Target: FAD-dependent oxidoreductase
Amino acid sequence: MQDTQVLIIGGSLVGLSAALFLSWRDVPTILVEKHRGSAPHPRATGFTERTLEYFRAVGLADQVPQVAPGTRLRRVKAESLSGRWHEETAWTPGEQAERPGTASPCTGATIAQDRLEPLLRAAAIERGADLRLGTELLSFEQDGEGVLARVRHCDSGEAYVIRASYMIAADGAGSPVREALGIARRGVGHLRTLRSVLFRCPEADSFLARGVQQFEIEQPGFRAFLTTYGDGRWVLMFDDDQERADADLADMVGKALGRDMAFELLATGRWEMAGRIAERYSHGHIFLAGDAAHQLPPTRGGFGANTGIDDAYNLAWKLEWVMSGRSSPVLLDTYSDERQPVGWLRHQQTFARPDYAPWAGNALQGEPLYGNEAMELGQLMRSAAVIGASLDLPPAAHPDAWAGQPGTRAPHIPIKRAGETISTIDLFTREFTLISQDRRWIAAAQHAASALAINIETVLVGEDVLFPVSDAFGRHFGVAHDGASLVRPDGIIAWRSTCGHEERAACLRDALSTIAALRGR
Model:
């Protein structure tokens, strides 16, 4: 029997991200994945600003090439790639597709999944994660102390048991772990099964200079969806589940390109268009993440892989605090409380938008639509790990509209620290952090940290950091001159001051004890 604190089942994007985030936090982690590398037909390609903020926090952002500021994802209806292009289609009706690029220090990335995954593997291993590729899960059981998982090395056939305090199931939409736990899912369900072909055609990349990356191909007797991975590889998706010979695939690729171009067929794919959200994301010592928790089709909002990476970042700090003995295991209940509503919101948004609404029979017609930046940077978390996120607040809003609302991501503002320009989000990655322009709050945080025997980072505005204008901190964080904001290790605002001056230390102790579920407090 081998022991670890966290066992991850599944080594694709979400499982690898979880291993990276946990190992960066010094949580002993084993990951098992039955495959030895990435799938030959990559799926995800677009990674959002928030995902890149997570990679930035763990020191990986510089290895992932980001898109140029102001770049937006554009889609047109077209006769073919080289033929006539028709009208452009919007993802969110009525919203400008351009993002001004002022809400995040990151711009997002366009990188194929099979190019990103090796970076995540290397980074996780470098930080101490134990990745066991070519190893499959045979069975598991829970007891009062954790999880016993029986695994087998696929080459040697050697089977052994791993005992883990907690297990993360990042084992895909068909998740055997979720099914064994009996966790039900709800949503629009199965809509149809589609096929695709991956091909290499560097000449086609010349058409990307016009700023469009996705094409709805419409010809008499032929309809398909064409998009690029930005590295000479393209994918053509059909609207049926018909198996095609290579000659037929080549003929359809030629039709989609519209003129004679040299190309090479690389791989075929088959995927289910469906919407299913797990009714809960945890069961005892086991947590669902990624497609195991929320199955959604590819979207221009990046609601698949990015949502799963967000799951992993949310869970990582909570596991760290529980495994270090600072927090009670009840802190882990907030994972499902916070992330399941996010998954459900993204389900509703996906099938309310024009891309997928017809496939769902317009069942979500009239659903309120939230803009791109609201969905990516302005979602609201509600749980016992947040104080002050009332039920009358919307589930998402533009990040500028929140102004430091507890339960939302701390706003990005360019600031100066020791003469260097950084982002405010760089302040909130490791520990709970109290930020204020009132020195008395800094002293109160130091007293609270000593009393609670935990570390609280403090930031004194005007001394430790300089904001661009004098009122920027109060305006963006929604606090008065003598106020303060407490930010969690995942960059979510947990609480902001509402109490009198003489009660600062006691008020902060009470807030932290609740938010972090401090053990024995």
Q: What stands out?
A: The chain has a mean pLDDT of 94. The chain has twelve helices and 24 strands. The CA atoms of residues 40 and 267 lie 7 Å apart.
